[in-house]
Amino acid sequence: MTSSPFIATTVTSATSLLHAYRNAFSHNARNSNIMYPHLLKVAKMERQGAPTDSSQFWIVCCSATKPDNVDFVLSCTDGPLGTYPIFIFSPRCDMNSDFITPRIKLLVETLLQRIDVRRAYSIFAVEPVSRAFANFWRLATGIGYYPEPYYAAMFSYCTRTSRAPRRQNTILDNTTYHLRRAVTTDIPTVTILCNGFASTADPFTQTLEQSAREAEILVNNQQLWVHTIKEGNMSEDIASIVAVTRDADSVAAITKVYTNPKWRARRCAERLVRYVCDQLLETKESVVLYVAHDNNAARKVYDRVGFLGLKKEAYGNVPGVEPWLEIGFDRESVDLGMW
User: Fold this and answer.
1) Is 137 helix (H, G, I), strand (E, B) or coil?
2) Nearest-angstrom CA–CA distance, 66 and 60
3) Percentage of the chain with pLDDT > 70?
């Protein structure tokens, strides 16, 4: 019997995974950001004595002849609000169908040995990888996927050199604003804004109770910035929020941007995103984010701040800027998580 040219290794300890493959993550800190910060967090908890959680694991795919060279890493992990999608990242930038197909097939076969099929409610990865996984998963399980992806987005990044010069402040008559980290007293208003953001992210909508829990986590972990605004004699309000929930050694990710509809068309989101990037880039090499292909307004905002590859004439045509897809599986056959 011919042996497989690939090896898939399942790892349940974040500490062990980092010991064996840290360079694959740290040397590719931007495109590994979807799982690297969580991996670091779990490893820290393990060092502090937390038991290994067997429901969370990673599958590393390598060539049999080069077991130290990582081709793909798949993660099946949990977040503070629920289970995460299946994430896949690769340090390789030269992937084609011949490279992707056999390795993703092996990852699917290995994953099926570890989980109930209901756990895999969606896959999020670079577009060709996500499509390959969805097709192999459907063949292996009989569970179909939705032709319309849950999320189709461009992955982009901003660096100290790409960051655009600060725009002249927009002067609004009788209006003042302040940019700062959120504090505990902001939680009730942040709850409403988190709920508004989730209402646009079908099927991952939230109850107000779930949004309150998320707001509490974001504020208490100092992962949220706010843009306050005061107009005339009105009470001060929070116009926009920006969350940064995936923070590793050299890269941080903006994971939520939302503006109260009442305060839109005043450049609040741009002003706050720029401010947050300024703060983060004091210590980080890059700030990353995903922006939906059909969200032209957001794409223009991020482009003005300095995120690369988002201009219409060069959309995605920058090294490291690439399309990602979240493909959802038949909700009658899965247990929907939250991220």
Assistant:
1) helix
2) 13
3) 97
- 123 Cβ contact partners less than 8 Å away, ≥ 6 residues apart: 85, 86, 88, 130, 133, 134, 137, 325, 326, 327, 329
With beta carbons less than 8 A apart as the criterion, state whether 328 and 152 touch. Answer: no
Tell me the three state secondary structure of residue 304.
helix
**224 by DSSP, 3-state: which?**
strand
Q: Per residue in 12-34, pLDDT tens? A: 999 999 999 999 999 999 999 99
**Rg, C-alpha atoms of the chain:** 21
186 secondary structure, DSSP code = G
Q: Which of 95-99, 102-106, 172-176 has the lowest mean pLDDT?
A: 172-176
Give residue 244's domain range.
Answer: 164-280
Task: Enter the tokens of residue 170.
Answer: 């927009």
Whether residues 265 and 233 fall in one domain = yes
* Whether the model pTM is above 0.90: yes
Residue 96 lies in a domain: yes
Please, are residues 246 and 34 in contact by the beta-carbon 8 Å criterion? yes
